[in-house]
Amino acid sequence: MENNLPNNDQDLILAIEVGEKIESGSSFSDLKNPFIDLLVEYKVNELSTIRITPSLTNLIWSNIQSKIQKQSAIIYPLHRRSKKLNWASAAVIFIAVFLGIYWSSIQPNYELLAASDSTIKLVTLDDGSEIILRPYTRLYHKNKRNYSLEGEAFFNVVTNPNSPFSVVGNYGIVKVLGTKFNFSTWGNTDIVYLEEGKIVFKSNLNDNDELILSPGQSSQIKEGQIDLLSYTSGEQFIDWISDTLIFNGNTPNEVINEINQHYGVTINIDQLEDNSKIKGSLKLESLNQTLDDLGLVLGGTFKKISNKKYEFISIE
């Protein structure tokens, strides 16, 4: 059964006209349509104030995908498509228009300031603040003292009451005046640990979700939820600076996520059957040595399957 709209349907006509504009690269304003004019006006007056970081785009698409997966799919065979646009094609064009206008307005305006590659890197900012980047970490700068982080870093921020310092992660943002803190954005979780001073840790998606941390406290944002962590020692948050990992009841997945970040690799542990929590410490030497030591703890070995990809093999 065909689900075509009538040929004189105004939405269908507009969809066809929009499609022609997309193909020709012409301005949407030529359509003289109040709805399109409203979108363009919204682009100019509203979206220019939105701050989007390179890493936040992954969260946006993840949320979109989760919404889509909740809807039942309707499949239309190719051989039943009409030469004229049916309602599904019109919907696709409208989605393309919305996304096109949206993304053209919120392209990341952060510039790459520093990248650590395979080694720890010290970055000194113009105001004297110092940042220690963990391996495979990227630090982006927007303006004044506004930054974005992909990976993990320890911040020693110089106090300036007239210029607050902020760092945006995947899911949250840290705001301070002057302090020392560690911030990580890997493993589908943003985690901040405060060593000195005071910070505000808030969600990127909900301005009402925020916590004020005191020295020794830590917090995470995971799956949209912000929580205080119950760790009694900050040692395990800054252990990587001395090339060591300290575990205090971490799951194997948490351990693997941290090793993935530190060495810039991807490790599959699907064959691991024992998911008991891990306590102790692990020296971060070469990747091979680290994997050999971790293999002894997990009861197996790690096999390289391709460039920077490894797989855990259980030993019975």
Write structural notes for this entry:
This protein is of the alpha+beta class. About 16% of the residues have low confidence. The protein is globular. It has a 7-stranded mixed sheet with strand order 1-4-5-7-8-11-12, with no helix packed on it. It has a 7-stranded antiparallel sheet with strand order 2-3-6-9-10-13-14, with no helix packed on it. The chain is 27% helix and 31% strand. Helix 1 packs across helix 4 and helix 2 runs parallel beside helix 4. The protein contains 6 helices and 19 strands.
Low-pLDDT sequence parts: 42-57, 63-89, 99-107
Give the radius of gyration.
24 Å
β-strand percent reads 25-35%
Strand order, largest beta sheet:
1-4-5-7-8-11-12
Mean pLDDT: 78
Please give the number of β-strands: 19
Shape: globular
Biggest sheet record: 7 strands, mixed
Share of helix among residues? 25-40%
Order of helices and strands: HHHHEEEEEEEEEEEEEEEHEEHEE
Supply the helix-strand structural class.
alpha+beta
What separation lies between the terminal Cα atoms? Answer: 57 Å
Number of helical stretches of at least 4 residues: 6
